[in-house]
Amino acid sequence: MSFFAKLFGRKSNSDTGQVKVPDAFIQIGPVLEEIGGEAIGCCPENWTSAVLTITCDGRKIEYSLKNQRGEQGTASITPLLAQLAEKLYVTMAKNGDRWTKAELQYDQDGDSWKFKSNFSYD
Q1: Which residues are CB-neighbours of 80 under 8 A, at least 6 positions away?
Q2: 70-85 per-position pLDDT tens digit
Q3: Which of 3, 40, 41, 101 would bridge 120 by S-S if both were Cys, CB 3.0 to 4.6 A apart?
Q4: CA-based nearest residue to 47, from 19, 68, 18, 26
Q5: Which residue has the higher pLDDT, 27 or 118?
């Protein structure tokens, strides 16, 4: 069962109707937060958008951090961002969610950033 099926597919405490947050989501939430902070920190200050792409073929993980708005500058992937990308894959894979590509998009909205993700599977 994939991470997302676990997230949206299980309920507990049926008497009260409360939704139980799956352990997989509890584990992955902080990782996504860390990745977001580090990814944004790796971008030039003038960037208002960034896409972190992580690919995994089952043996190696590759990553890139790019701007799709044509804003000047180049992002540099720090060892910490690389480590967090690997942690994201490993954590999700341990919970049965083995994707081949993750796209994590960050868009500046005033003083804050919006986050959107897309996961691809073979």
Answers
A1: 38
A2: 999 999 999 999 999 9
A3: 101
A4: 68
A5: 118
Cβ neighbourhood burial of 47 (10 Å; 0-12, 13-18, 19+): buried
Strand partners, 119: 102
Distance between CA atoms of 91 and 28, rounded to whole angstroms? 7
Residue 90 neighbours by CB under 8 Å, 6+ apart: none
Tell me: pLDDT of 36 over 70: yes
Please indicate, yes or no, whether the overall pTM of this predicted structure exceeds 0.85: no
Place of tokens 């902080």: 30
Residue 110: exposed, middle, or buried by beta-carbon count in 10 A (0-12, 13-18, 19+)?
Answer: exposed
Give me the pLDDT at residue 17, please. Answer: 56
Task: Give the residue among 3, 57, 58 at the shortest CA–CA distance from 29.
Answer: 3
Torsion sign across C-alpha atoms 52, 53, 57, 61: negative
Please, what is the average pLDDT of the chain?
A: 85
Sorted by where each starts, the structural domains of the chain and their CATH numbers stand as 22-120 (3.30.500.20)
